[in-house]
Amino acid sequence: MASQASWAYLSRVVEGPSHHIQALLSVGRTADEIAHGVRTRASWVGGLLKQTENRYSWDRPTHDLEQAAELGFTLLTPESPHWPTEAIQRSFGCQQTGAAAKESHQPDGIAPHALWVQGNANLAGLFAHSVGVVGTRHATKYGHVATKDLVAGLGGHNYTVVSGGALGIDTVAHQTAIDVCTPTVVVAACGPGEHYPRSNKALFERVVARGGAVVTEYPPGTTPDRHRFLTRNRLVAALTLGTVLVEAPFRSGALNTLKWVNVFNRKAMAVPGPITDPQSLGANLAIRRQEAQMVLNADQIHEELCAVGEFDAQEQLEMQFPPSVVQQLSRNELRIYDALPPVGRQGREAEAVAADAGLSIALTVHILMDLSKRGLVQRDKRVWSRVEQPEQ
Hints:
The structure is a single chain. This protein is α/β, with parallel strands linked by helices and 392 residues long. Helices cover 45% and strands 12% of the residues. The protein has three domains: 1-60, no CATH class; 71-319, Rossmann fold (3-Layer(aba) Sandwich); 331-386, Arc Repressor Mutant, subunit A (Orthogonal Bundle), CATH 1.10.10. The chain is built from 19 helices and twelve strands.
């Protein structure tokens, strides 16, 4: 195994994903060898020479590791036992064609070579059964309520909830996960020692205290600059089984995450919103363009992420909203029931009911007797009336 110092050095001098590092690792080069090659400007490191020409002298791995440790962070690498190997191979190793392939070969479409983690370092376990929940920073009351409902339900299905720690939908997702005692992961766009937004520092501490984690590709002290959020988005998409977009305006950054979900062939889902609200326009358009599957509750999200036939969200709705006794009537029973006046009014004889219902007298009498046993109609000598049922 390579030393942590070598991985920390590469994390410092090569920001974010690197095709060149991944290529060298794939042919058997170790992090120690690659780090030495970068330091000595060896020609065999190829494209890493140019990629590190302005940073290779930033040789401070011991300081970075010590500073990270003081902040409660550890450095995970592909050699670590808790590295999320399965999730990374599932997304970054997938074979893609067309537009997806073009996107995946962009710099951001490359797997991470190191992750700094605060809290639960078992990323393999956290991401094995996880779902991303993302959306606008300017969430409406509808977005808050929808996110709380979805995340509470996902907690019931034992999902890890993954988001970016931003204001709005992200914050509601993390806080609700904590409230329902399900793990949550913040994928940050800055390094250890930085907090974005600063107002969420206490929230991030609660995430860690409750068995979750803060994860970042960036070494200590790296600031949350705009381009890093776009790079961060691909990790939320790649490391989870699927991602749900709750609210997003037309040019929301959350739509960038949804793009990566489709690039990595993960499950892309979105919650529809009011057509009059610009904060839901991006999500509604994603559904219309078939870039995301519409979902209305956590059970539908769970069904999307399960193997075919493993879970039936429609069956859960049927149980949650059972039909009324009148809704359970057959077509002929309903024709008879509707032909009767309510109890308290003048009842009708079977012959008149049969005529209105368009059924034979024999069948009408048979149905009336059966409905009477079920308490849906009443008989007073020769006339019949229906027993009104409460509205559901």
